Every structure is written in C-alpha cells, then in structure tokens.
Amino acid sequence: MEGYALITGATSGIGLELALNFARDGIHLVLVARTKEKLEEIKTRIEGEYGVKVLILPKDLTHEEAPLEIYEELEKEGVQVDYLVNNAGFGTFGRLKDTDLETEKDLVKLNVLSLLEMNKRFVPAMAERGFGYVMNVASLAAFMPGPVMANYYASKAYVLSLSEAMHEELKPYGVKVSALCPGPVKTGFQERAQMKKTNAAMAFLMEAKKVADVGYLGMWRGKAVVVPGTFEKAVPVLVKLLPRSLIRKASFLSQKE
C-alpha cells in the first residue's frame, strides 16, 4: 500500500514548503487546513507539477471533533499515513491578563490538544508496521518562557517535551520522531498573532523554505530536535547556561508592546 504524508496547516509557510518537499520525492499527500479554496489551488498545483496524489481535508483543528474526523475519513478511503507533520498552530500577543480567554483556549486546542490527538490516532499503526516518520513543529520558543506571548511559548514547550519523549519511546518500533524548532519565520504568523518585534529581532526572520528544508532533512536523518539557523542553534545552549531571570528579561525585551 502506498504511504501518504499528512500535513496540517498546509496552505502557507512551513507547511506548504514541506508539502512541496514530499511531493518532489514522489510521496502522496493529505493536506489539512481551514480554507477549502486554498487547498484546492495547492492540490491543482502539486498534482500538475509533481504527479503525486493529493487529498485535501478542509478542517479546523480548533474543533474538538476534527482529528477523529480526519482519521475516520482516511480509514474509509484506505489511506495509509506513513509521514505525519503536525504543523498547524498560531500565537497570541499581549500580556496574559489582557488577552482574550476564548482565543487563548483555541490556541491550546490547536497547538497542544489537536497535535496530541493526531499523534494518538496515527502513530500506533506506524508502530505496528515498523515504519513511520513524525514531525511535530515546535519553536525556538519551546526552550524559554515568553512574556507577552506566554501561552504560545508554553504550548511549544509541551510540543518539544512530548516529541523528545516520543522519539525515545518509538525507536524500538522503527518510527522516527522529530521536533522542528525554528526561530521567527517570514510567514503570516506574526500578523495573525498581532505581534510586534524589535528591529533587531526582525533581522533574524528566516525564510519558510529554508526552515522547511532543514526540518525535512533532519526528519529523514531521525534527529530528535531540529533547530534551523546558526544563531538559533546557540539559543538552547545559552538558555541552559544563563540565569533564568536573564532569559526572561531578554525574551521580554525582544518584543514591542
């Protein structure tokens, strides 16, 4: 049976670039995002350029039932998912006391709960077959607290911790799990989060294609944690060495309220 790559948040940014990488390697796709029209455009483009099959599932993963619906629809179609990329996510910007509660709850539903359920739904079958790759998209934010983006940083810390644990648990079953931890990326993320960065922080924005390429290679190599960028690779090390109070302050100062 032919294996598919299932990618959430697949219509732009890192998710789209990862989809193109899989397609270039002849791997069929299941693309998940909220907007049907964008999914249809990308399906037409990828099938025309690369000749792979592209299934689209317009789903909002902040809805509790969405992961089960995805799983059941693919089971019904007999689609085998050998590659799972949990990329969908968003951030909020502002002091936690001021941000909207329902939006913060949606952030946790998408960044944490849906990612957890997608792993729970699709990984057991990979382990039974003795083959599979999982990429959970975390963030450089996972390594530190994030004043003014507190809930987002906390959600990515969860993704990183979960992914590293899964990496060890699934080694004996032939399933490779990676956490992709990019720094700020040139996508629509900042606009949706209504966030502002200092000029210095803006200078470190990476291109989505570069992040996707590094993450894709790291996934194939079975790396537990993939951090794109030379400067970015130093951040996890510095976080371990420097006082937590200094890390909190530096993170806070990188934002503009």
UniProtKB/TrEMBL annotation:
InterPro entries: NAD(P)-bd_dom_sf, SDR_fam. It comes from Proteiniclasticum ruminis. One of its GO terms (cellular component) is membrane. This is Short-chain dehydrogenase. Belongs to the short-chain dehydrogenases/reductases (SDR) family. One of its GO terms (molecular function) is oxidoreductase activity. Coiled coil: none annotated. It comes from the Bacteria. Gene3D superfamilies: NAD(P)-binding Rossmann-like Domain. CDD domains: SDR_c. The keyword Oxidoreductase applies. Keywords: Oxidoreductase.
